[in-house]
Specification:
The structure is a homodimer of 256-residue chains. The first copy, chain A, is an alpha+beta fold and 256 residues long. Chain A folds into 2 domains: 9-143, Jelly Rolls (Sandwich); 161-253, Orthogonal Bundle (Arc Repressor Mutant, subunit A). Helix content of chain A is 34%, strand content 20%. The first copy, chain A, has 7 helices and 12 strands. In chain A, the strands form 3 sheets. In chain A, strands 1-2-9-4-7 form a 5-stranded antiparallel β-sheet, with no helix packed on it. In chain A, strand 11 (225-227) and strand 12 (230-232) form a beta hairpin. In chain A, helix 4 (164-183) packs across helix 6 (208-220). Chain A is globular. Chain A binds chain B through residues 78, 80-82, 86, 88, 99-102, 105, 108-109, 138, 141-143, 145-150, 152-153, 155-157, 159-162, 204-205, 207, 244, 249, 252-253, 255-256, and chain B through 78, 80-82, 86, 88, 99-102, 105, 108-109, 138, 141-143, 145-150, 152-153, 155-157, 159-162, 204-207, 244, 249, 252-253, 255-256. Chain A binds a DNA duplex (30 and 30 nucleotides) through helix 6.
Chain lengths: 256, 256
DNA sequence: CGAGGGATTGAGATTCATCAATCTATGTGG
DNA sequence: CCACATAGATTGATGAATCTCAATCCCTCG
């Protein structure tokens, strides 16, 4: 089986070299010594551009690559049969996507871009080779997995809550904090936010109609507001409190 | 900080030696060569007994140990402030519990035994030493992490569904299949099942009252029945269908 | 035998999904 | 530049699903 190939467009010139990657410290390759970055780069197939709302890979299919997100956002999801989706996670720059227990097996989730993206591609069948050749990468992969678990657990807490306003508060508060963490920004009260209300529903297990009403309530309460692809949070502590989200747990996402 | 110490009772004699562990192939130490099992054992503090419904460790506290489950079941959960819990995962024999991104940091979840248990304890502060000294353990840890992710994602799908009967079907079907997988049993139609209805509710985001009513419906439909700490599933395929659970995904939990 | 945790049942209130219509912003082709 | 198509956002009405509160029952254990 040749594997599914998304509509990736290889960047023809001026690809970022791993040794000059500005976000290296938050990727799988954090900690790799300068002189070993050429090794990393030798495993990289290249950098690819992708438009918003395109499939990156599909559940149950094979994929040739693992991707490290260089730019943009995407959603990892599973399909539910009745046409619905469960969004597992929103992946941001630095995240590794497509890694799973049995690396050669068909994927057990799908990914779709939420913005235009740039992805660094690493061939699956050579990935364990890379792990074996550089202990830092292996160690860091373990850290990324553990971070994933933490995110997944928080997400579980969000959709396990029994009322919609708490689900959405927690979901958005976490993204808000992750965003600041990843982009290393001083705390502002607004972030870029490309998700539609349907997607917020797919992530939290609610219908888009109810998401809409709940967002209106949150906006009326002056706790958060989404408009024009921007999430505004006047007071993140209040939002965390409503979602019963421990903001400190976000610090464990970026390690050491 | 000395760290939280649960009421563990060290087994005084006839502790199982790692080299003779009957469930080694499904633990962190699958794949470790015979001659290296003494190394593993040298890192093990000992085997401990624990009664049902006891705390193993608590969120936000430090724990001296990581545990590999030798016998029994436990629940991993987060507390929600209002006295409620979100159960993240049911851990079964062979599972490693207490591992997280920053291994020395306070834990970000709690664990409570659901049955009497026997745990193998490994000191946290020496754990990375063990990983560095045996590549099989490191590789296997990665596999276990990936398996955890898979479980967590399935759990997300369960509680993301919009009706209770599907949530509970998926949750129980997964446990049913995991149980058979772990104990390597031929497919029977009943398994031991120690969870209370409150705990099923904590796992699926429902109240115990509604769990009760939904279980009655499922029983009336002859799809599954819980009584006397036994889960009976006349036709697992039907149950999976109702929960839209892909039974094949269970095979990815045990690797290679 | 009594105590207590878990299971069960009922009634009423709340939250949420569904269906359907409208509105708005954006982009596309002529 | 306009007409149109389309995706997303919004609103209303209705019924279903679920929660809450409360009472009762049942089983186990000391």
């Amino acid at each position: 089986m040749p594997g599914y190939t998304p509509e990736l467009i290889e960047i023809s010139k001026n690809q970022t070299r791993c040794s000059e990657c500005p976000i290296r410290h938050q990727t799988l390759f954090q900690g790799v010594k300068k002189e070993d970055l050429n090794l990393v780069q030798s495993y990289r197939t290249g950098q690819y551009r992708l438009k918003a709302r395109q499939e990156i890979f599909l559940e149950a299919q094979n994929s040739q690559y693992l991707f490290s997100i260089y730019h943009g956002w995407c959603a990892i999801y599973k399909s539910l049969g009745n046409g619905k989706k469960q969004i597992i996670k929103i992946a941001l720059p630095g995240d590794l996507i497509g890694f799973q227990s049995n690396i050669e097996a068909p994927l057990n989730y799908s990914a779709i871009s939420l913005t235009d993206m740039v992805l660094c591609a690493f061939p699956r069948n050579e990935f364990t080779g890379l792990l074996n050749r550089n202990a830092f990468v292996l160690k860091r992969l373990m850290e990324l997995n553990a971070r994933e678990m933490n995110l997944c657990q928080n997400h579980l807490m969000a959709i396990g809550k029994n009322i919609a306003i708490e689900k959405i508060s927690l979901f958005c508060a976490e993204l808000f904090l992750r965003f600041h963490n990843i982009y290393q920004l001083p705390l502002t009260n607004r972030i870029f936010f490309p998700l539609t209300q349907v997607e917020i529903g797919d992530a939290t297990g609610l219908t888009c109609v109810h998401v809409n009403r709940t967002l209106k309530t949150l906006s009326d309460m002056n706790l958060m507001d989404i408009s024009a692809r921007t999430l505004t949070v006047p007071d993140i502590d209040k939002l965390c409190k409503l979602g019963q989200f421990d903001a400190k747990s976000i610090h464990t996402y970026t390690l050491y």
